[in-house]
Amino acid sequence: MGWIRDYGLYLAWLVALIATGGSLYFSEMAGFIPCELCWYQRILMYPLAVILGVASYRDDRSVVLYSLPLSLSGVALSAFHYLLQKVPGMAGLSPCKEGIPCSGQYINWLGFITIPFLAFVAFVLISLLLAAARKGSD
């Protein structure tokens, strides 16, 4: 598993790029209008694609200290968003009062994979890869 430590920063960047591209595909190509929580998740993901790209190029593992708070915040936010979609009792907690409802599900693959679920997986992967990359620099 030493290769994960060696390439964790690069892999985290790839995950951020794929997640950014996926969110742009869903909104620009598929025509899915993002809800308010989707916008906040984008605010956390898009800078990671740039920051981790520069850090990967420079092999700057100190970026973990700046990127990990963004990815962990994304984990929490996307988990909350997913719960809003899947747990009916949480619908009253939704911050989306106007426009697109946060509980809406544009996709529901295999009965559980929604856009917030995909964001959650991406943020968790980025967080784990950053933690592994940080350990590689110690």
Order of helices and strands: HHHH
CATH-defined topology: Bromodomain-like
- Percentage of helical residues? over 70%
Let me know the largest β-sheet.
none
> What's the count of strands?
0
Report the portion of residues in β strands. under 5%
Organism: Planifilum fimeticola
Pfam family, one: DsbB
GO molecular function, one term: protein-disulfide reductase activity
Protein name: Disulfide bond formation protein DsbB
Question: What layout of secondary structure does this protein have?
Answer:
Elements: H1 2-29, H2 36-58, H3 64-86, H4 115-137
Subcellular location: Membrane
Family: Belongs to the DsbB family. BdbC subfamily.
Organism: Planifilum fimeticola
Tell me about this structure.
This is Disulfide bond formation protein DsbB. It is found in: Membrane. It is a multi-pass membrane protein. Its main location: membrane. The protein is elongated. It has a single domain (2-137), classed as Bromodomain-like. The chain has 138 residues and is an all-alpha fold. The mean pLDDT is 92. Helix 1 (2-29) crosses helix 2, helix 1 packs antiparallel against helix 4 and helix 3 runs antiparallel to helix 4. 70% of the residues lie in helices and 0% in strands.
